């Protein structure tokens, strides 16, 4: 049986202080180089990829690996920062840059593994140009993913953003909106469930897959992988990048076996980035 711990965000919030106190020197923490490496990850596809490594590659490489699942985008970095876990695998560089800046953390990438193309989905139309005047489009509420969603719509001529707008773009930066679309900001994990209530939603790849959507098939607009800055990576607190366990995991995550697993398992909905 896999040693995978599924963590509920509300419980974590209540126990955050206890976790912080217990982290120092705890088995699997960043202070214990002889224990299992505990990696915080989103359930899909990150934890699935890590569990493939755990089940098929880790023993031969002499790596003890424990996967801890989180359903939000904040706790993994906070747990990595305080040493509750030794590493995390769930995010991209623009998101991490924004998080480090706002939270005062010093998390850093180790190795890039895959891309989950962001997509626009709808239960009501089959093409973006079929959206009606005044239609409501749900987008992620966090800074980087909201900007990413708007840039996806801009790249496909649904809206037009102000020239040079970066990873802090909001609907206020829209300069042309021919259909008069209305934007509803929701936590990223809620977006798939919103599809019955809105006309369309821009959904992160991991949450789309969890909701049994197939980005390569079901998205009416899908992000291009070419020169894409949003690839996901293994990350650690600065200073832990030389941990032998982290180096072993980084090598395994970018192995030919993992590349084949990603291609076979996700059929274009998740793309290897190495």
Automatic annotation (TrEMBL):
It comes from Streptomyces rhizosphaericus. Keywords: Lipoprotein, Membrane, Palmitate, Signal. This is Lipoprotein. It is a lipid-anchor. PANTHER family: D-METHIONINE-BINDING LIPOPROTEIN METQ, METHIONINE-BINDING LIPOPROTEIN METQ. Belongs to the nlpA lipoprotein family. The keyword Mitochondrion does not apply. The keyword Lipoprotein applies. Residues 1-25 form the signal peptide.
């Amino acid at each position: 049986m896999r040693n995978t711990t599924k963590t509920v965000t509300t419980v974590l919030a209540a126990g955050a202080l206890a976790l912080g106190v217990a982290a120092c020197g705890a088995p699997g923490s960043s202070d214990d180089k002889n224990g299992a490496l505990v990696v915080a990850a989103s359930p899909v596809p990150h934890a699935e990829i890590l569990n493939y490594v755990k089940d098929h590659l880790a023993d031969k490489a002499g790596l003890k690996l424990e996967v801890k699942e989180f359903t939000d985008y904040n706790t993994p970095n906070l747990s990595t920062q305080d040493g509750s876990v030794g590493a995390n695998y769930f995010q991209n560089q623009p998101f991490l840059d924004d998080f480090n800046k706002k939270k005062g953390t010093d998390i850093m990438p180790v190795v890039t593994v895959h891309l989950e193309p962001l997509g626009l989905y709808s239960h009501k139309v089959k093409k973006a140009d079929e959206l009606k005047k005044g239609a409501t489009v749900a987008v992620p509420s966090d800074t980087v993913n909201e900007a990413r969603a708007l840039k996806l719509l801009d790249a496909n001529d649904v809206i037009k953003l102000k020239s040079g707008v970066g990873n802090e773009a909001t609907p206020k930066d829209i300069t042309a909106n021919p259909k008069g679309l209305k934007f509803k900001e929701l936590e990223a994990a809620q977006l798939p469930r919103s599809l019955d209530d809105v006309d369309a939603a821009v959904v992160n790849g991991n949450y789309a897959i969890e909701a049994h959507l197939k980005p390569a098939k079901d998205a009416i607009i899908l992000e291009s992988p070419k020169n894409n800055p949003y690839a996901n990576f293994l990350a650690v607190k600065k200073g832990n990048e030389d941990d032998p366990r982290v180096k072993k995991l980084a090598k395994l995550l970018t192995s030919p076996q993992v590349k084949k697993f990603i291609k076979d398992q996700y059929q274009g909905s998740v793309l290897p980035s190495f």
